[in-house]
């Protein structure tokens, strides 16, 4: 099975069909869903490699995309989630990433960009938009000069991770980050995955402050 | 009413309690305020205290009504607070026009001073600041002075109907206290703390006690006096509580209205988010990233988003918002896609030079490179850094003809004048251009 299998979850049928027609032909769309309950059913039934998941979804208990991830992930162990949203709001990002999404891109991204992001997620990498990188720098106190002393520290970024995040926030692609820092693209991906892990596991209160303030988590 | 002019310069105007004090600074403050020797004031207070506790009552009242010297924030209420002790204690023969004048009009007291003799200082204070009429203080003052007077008279052997006077005084004091709480509540200055609740409850207890005493101490209690007493307590409590009840209902209706407005707004935001924003995202996706339709849709989306999610807060404009505004206008004029990522927050005025240089850099990228332009702002406590990255043909400072002022003058020289630096270097992966502006904030603070 060489094809990358995807499921598109979005409550707007126009958007689903639009995205479907724009996606790279190498991506095979297994199904679509419009609500939380539909999405869980489709993902569990088709076991796709990647789910393109809207953050805001009707149905379920009102938890949107994060609820889909929490409910479907245990039943579809090989499935990865890439969050799509019209919103760049910090609380949206935090909610889905902490629920387990491997990346976050905005809906205005072109079909090619979405395909590339899906492929990268399927390859085990994390997908960070510039805005997400900026948010990570903010939330981990990198601007205030906080730097992790050890590699296993969850609440702060290492100096290298900060450099990588800064360049991504500046709009650099992974390859460009690699050449700017004189490291291999694989190392960049390792750093990004490490940051994603911290984002998911860290207990820094800034990460959850937005979400809890709006009762999203 | 002869000594109305503030000729005595020893009068300090406001009666405040100084820092150097033995108990609460009341005597020292009063002595300084009136020009009397401190020792004399203290002795009088002590003697009065021996007269059935009258001095203690007076002391307590002044303590409660006189602001602390250190509390500068109470300056606005100081004139109101200090005038009454003075007037009541001296039988309003020595009054201070300047203390009665509202703080905003310092000259009014001096100019109208001689003429006040006919109108009377009370009228002046009442007409100048009707809302500040110290009714509560007058009530309190009357109650306490009356108590003190009654006690002294009783001690001196006068036969006063104390069983009627004392309850009345207690009730008066309670009402005064209660209404004073209300005044603080209404002005919004009073802290909504438990202390206030305690004081309010104390006022209620006082009123109830006073009314009860009135009936209990009277002769020949029978069923009717008990019934009337109960009714009186209820009425008294109602009078005291009325301001709170009014305030509470008004607050409730205000809050409900605000909630309804907020709910309506949230509903509309949710609806627009689900429909219009999605459609705009779709247009951008379908039309290709650099087409006119995508550009328009993007600008519209940004406008709508600003209005939906930040429309309520019209606070100080920060650097990120300014840059986003610039990005929107640039996107309208050029076929370009500007992404602004902001990290950190600036809690001070953004230097105009930095903004102007950043605008020039974005415009430059839009004019010469097009495509997508990334703007990254990092505001740390010590410096602001802005980088503008494009993926155009790229250029170096050396390539620019000497007569082209755009980059050299508008960006580099401008940043230098503002105390910062600017650099032009090749963009990511050696393509395009990256302009970095950085401004240390310490320098900015020295030369505001």
Mind explaining what this structure looks like?
- The complex is a heterodimer of chains A (217) and B (448).
- Chain A folds into two domains: 121 residues, Rossmann fold (3-Layer(aba) Sandwich), CATH 3.40.50; 82 residues, Arc Repressor Mutant, subunit A (Orthogonal Bundle), CATH 1.10.10.
- In chain A, strand 3, helix 3 and strand 4 form a beta-alpha-beta unit.
- Chain A is 49% helix and 14% strand.
- Chain A starts with a strand and ends with a helix.
- Chain A is an alpha/beta fold and 217 residues long.
- In chain A, helix 6 packs antiparallel against helix 7 and helix 8 crosses helix 9.
- Chain B is α+β, with helices and mostly antiparallel strands and 448 residues long.
- Chain B folds into two domains: 215 residues, no CATH class; 113 residues, Histidine kinase-like ATPase, C-terminal domain (Heat Shock Protein 90), CATH 3.30.565.
- Chain B is 61% helix and 9% strand.
- Chain B is built from 17 helices and five strands.
- A five-stranded mixed sheet of chain B has the order 1-2-3-5-4.
- The radius of gyration of chain B is 35 Å and the shape is elongated.
- The N terminus and C terminus of chain B are likely disordered.
- Chains A and B meet through helix 1, helix 6, helix 7 and helix 8 of A and helix 12, helix 13, strand 1 and strand 2 of B.
CATH superfamily of the largest domain in chain A: Response regulator
Considering residues with a beta carbon less than 8 A from a beta carbon on another chain, report the largest interface and each chain's count. A-B, 40 and 33 residues
Order of helices and strands of chain B: HHHHHHHHHHHHHHEHEEHEEH
Principal-axes shape call of chain B: elongated
Terminal Cα span of chain A? 37 Å
Question: Mean of the pLDDT scores of chain B?
Answer: 68
Q: Count the DSSP helices of chain B.
A: 17
CATH architecture of the largest domain in chain A: 3-Layer(aba) Sandwich
Radius of gyration of chain A, taken over Cα atoms and rounded to an integer in Å: 17 Å
Provide the gyration radius of chain B in Å. 35 Å
Q: How many distinct domains of chain A?
A: 2
Major β-sheet strand ordering of chain A: 2-1-3-4-5-6
Q: What overall geometry of chain A do the principal axes of the alpha carbons give? A: globular
Helicity level of chain B: 55-70%
Output the CATH topology of the largest domain in chain A.
Rossmann fold
The count of DSSP E runs of length 2 or more, i.e. the number of strands of chain B, is 5
Protein name (chain A): DNA-binding response regulator
GO molecular function, one term (chain A): DNA binding
Modified residues (4-aspartylphosphate) (chain A): 54
Keywords (chain A): DNA-binding, Phosphoprotein
């Amino acid at each position: 099975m060489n094809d990358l299998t995807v499921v598109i979850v979005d409550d707007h049928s126009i958007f689903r069909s639009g995205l479907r027609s724009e996606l790279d032909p190498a991506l095979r769309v297994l199904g679509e869903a419009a609500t939380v309950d539909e999405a869980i059913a489709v993902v569990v039934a088709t076991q796709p490699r990647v789910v393109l998941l809207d953050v805001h979804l009707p149905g379920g208990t009102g938890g949107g995309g994060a609820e889909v991830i929490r409910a479907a992930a245990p039943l579809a162990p090989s499935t990865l989630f890439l969050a799509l949203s019209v919103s760049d709001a910090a609380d949206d990002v935090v909610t889905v990433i902490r629920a387990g999404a491997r990346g976050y891109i905005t809906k205005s991204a072109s079909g090619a960009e979405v395909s590339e992001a899906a492929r990268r997620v399927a390859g085990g990498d994390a997908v960070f938009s510039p805005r997400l990188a900026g948010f990570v720098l903010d939330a981990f106190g990198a601007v205030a000069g906080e730097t992790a002393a050890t590699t296993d520290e969850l609440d702060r970024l290492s100096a290298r991770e900060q450099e990588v995040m800064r360049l991504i926030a500046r709009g650099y692609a992974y390859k460009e980050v690699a050449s700017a820092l004189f490291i291999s693209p694989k190392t960049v991906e390792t750093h990004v995955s490490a940051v994603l892990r911290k984002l998911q596991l860290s207990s820094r209160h800034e990460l959850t402050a937005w979400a809890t303030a709006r009762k999203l988590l | 009413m002869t000594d109305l002019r503030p000729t005595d310069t020893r009068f300090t105007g406001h009666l405040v309690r100084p820092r150097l004090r033995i108990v609460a600074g009341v005597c020292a403050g009063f002595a300084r305020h009136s020009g009397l020797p401190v020792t004399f004031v203290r002795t009088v207070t002590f003697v009065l205290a021996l007269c059935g506790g009258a001095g203690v009552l007076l002391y307590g009242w002044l303590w409660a009504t006189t602001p602390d010297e250190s509390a500068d924030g109470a300056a606005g209420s100081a004139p109101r607070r200090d005038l009454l002790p003075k007037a009541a204690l001296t039988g309003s023969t020595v009054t201070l026009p300047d203390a009665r004048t509202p703080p905003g009009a310092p000259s009014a007291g001096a100019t109208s001073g001689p003429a006040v003799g006919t109108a009377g200082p009370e009228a002046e204070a009442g007409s100048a600041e009707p809302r500040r009429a110290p009714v509560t203080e007058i009530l309190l003052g009357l109650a306490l002075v009356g108590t003190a007077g009654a006690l002294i008279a009783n001690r001196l052997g006068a036969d006063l109907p104390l069983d009627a006077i004392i309850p009345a005084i207690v009730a008066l004091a309670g009402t005064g206290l209660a209404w004073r709480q209300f005044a603080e509540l209404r002005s919004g200055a009073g802290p909504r703390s438990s202390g206030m609740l305690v004081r309010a409850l104390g006022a209620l207890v006082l009123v109830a006690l006073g009314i009860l005493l009135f009936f209990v101490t009277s002769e020949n209690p029978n069923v009717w006096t008990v019934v009337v007493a109960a009714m009186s307590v209820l009425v008294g409590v109602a009078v005291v509580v009325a301001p709170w009840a009014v305030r509470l209902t008004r607050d409730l209706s205000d809050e409900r209205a605000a909630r309804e407005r907020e709910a309506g707004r949230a509903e509309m935001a949710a609806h627009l988010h689900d429909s219009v924003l999605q459609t705009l995202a779709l247009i951008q996706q379908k039309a290709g990233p650099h087409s006119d339709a995508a550009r328009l849709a993007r600008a519209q989306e940004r406008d709508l988003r600003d209005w939906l999610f930040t429309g309520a807060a019209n606070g100080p404009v920060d650097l990120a918002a300014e840059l986003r505004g610039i990005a929107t206008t640039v996107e309208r004029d050029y076929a370009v896609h500007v992404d602004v990522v902001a990290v950190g927050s600036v809690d001070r005025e953004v230097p105009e030079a930095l903004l102007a240089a950043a605008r020039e850099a974005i415009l430059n990228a839009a004019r010469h490179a097009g495509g997508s332009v990334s703007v990254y702002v990092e505001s740390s406590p010590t410096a602001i850094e802005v980088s503008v990255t494009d993926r155009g043909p790229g250029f170096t400072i050396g390539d620019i003809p000497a007569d082209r002022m755009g980059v050299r003058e508008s960006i580099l020289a401008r940043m230098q004048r503002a105390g910062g630096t600017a650099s032009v270097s090749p963009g990511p992966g050696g393509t395009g251009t990256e302009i970095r502006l950085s401004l240390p904030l310490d320098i900015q603070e020295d030369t505001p």
